[in-house]
Amino acid sequence: MSALKSLVLITVDCLRADHVSFLGYNRRTTPFLESLAAESVIFSTAIVAGAPTYYSFPGIMASRYPLALGRDVIGLAPHEPTIASVLNQSGYSSAAFVAGNPYLSPRFGYGAGFGDFQDFLNTDSALPSSGSNQVTKIRRTRWNQALAAACHKFGPAAFLYNELYFQYCQRLTSRTASSLDKLRRFPSADVIIDQACQWLSGHAGQPLFLWLHFIDPHCPYYPPLPALASMGNSDVSAFRARYVNSNWNRGDLGVTRLKRRRDQVIALYDSGIHWVDVQIGRLVNKLRDLCVWDNCVFALTADHGEEFLDHGGRYHSPSKVTDELIRVPLLIRAGEVKAQLVNTPFSLLDLAPTLLDAMDAPIPGSFRGNSCWSQVRDEKRWDGQAIVECITSCSNPFRLNDRLGARILAIREKRYKLVFNFGISTEQLFDLEADPHELHPVAHGVASPARRRLLEVARQHLTDSLNSRDLNQRLTARLRDLRLEWAESTAGVPI
Ligand SMILES: [Zn+2]
Q1: Counted domains in the chain
Q2: Does pTM surpass 0.85?
Q3: Ligand 1 centroid to 175 CA: how many Å?
Q4: Strands 416-421 and 407-412: what pairing?
Q5: How far is the centre of ligand 1, averaged over its atoms, from the C-alpha of 342 (Å)?
């Protein structure tokens, strides 16, 4: 057995903290992780450094705020120190199996430092670029277009037309909804685990770093049948699942009508989480068989959450930093440390240094976060604070204009949360004890010491962002992006 500890890092797309049963969700989505929680450190309030995926992962992998190199830079800069590069330099064998998310590809720097990197983007199962792709578009005839235009001049007629047209589209596309596996647009967790297990078999006996990114809870929600059956939803057919997804994606329905189908959508989402849990059980068995498990740090977290009308929205809007989108599960298992629950807010910016610290590996000076491992080991508690930032309406970071929107910034403490939207010049303070669902901002003049404290944190963060900007990394990243954009435009490939 190697003296160096191995690391298994699992990230799950769109996994909100309050939908895993090891953090108290009333539906048993994660029974295997519950069993692991009994010997792990569980963080009840882990907060991402940015959202969605492309603003979250620089924090997870490089312990860096997403906008720190300038808002036009997406992903990691070439040669930017990451968990992977540190362990690569320490002689680790490493592999990443990333389930078809284009924002986590080598194009954005995520392949650096890995011996093997599989992103599944060369298959036809890549993630759709936006929710609008989920509904099969039916070509409208000229007559139909005229009818639609006429109906939309009158409210009730528009409502009727939309409903009939939706039902018509569903029936017309029913023939293609032959199975959930055919409807799914990305590799499910079992595919990722199969490949990971194969890789592990060829590399056991060496210090290892394995990163797996699952995307099963991502929309459109098409979980495998065994997961549906195990969660008590075996009666859901492929046609039904497609209908539920398409209805959920409609732009013509208000919140009241969408709410009628919300439970069905959540049942599909939860089943995707459960499938990930089952497959992680398979992975851990493999790690045990190969004698890797006992000398391994194992961590599971997510890049962001998912909204089910909590604040009127669906999916994971880049323009919101509400808790259902920024609070994620975090479980760290590292043999010798006592199982415990940490309730203090923990920024995922601190994850990379904490994991490297737990492995006795060096922590790069460029990491902005701090390790909390000594406090965890000594079971000490601290006052945690997390900063989250993203860009309003940036739903497609391949488009430069999307990346240049206004910043949204949130400072999250245990009780208070201050949210700035620089695009519309708003500043809202929430008292999460009195208002856990963030529905009623605290009036100005109330809780002034908390507001003052968080304002100072925000001011300091913005000052530090400018002063600590690594211009070399910024320019290297911009040059890479420009080269790729040029190559793609001359090759006629859309970017
Ligand atoms: Zn994501």
Answers
A1: 1
A2: yes
A3: 30
A4: antiparallel
A5: 24
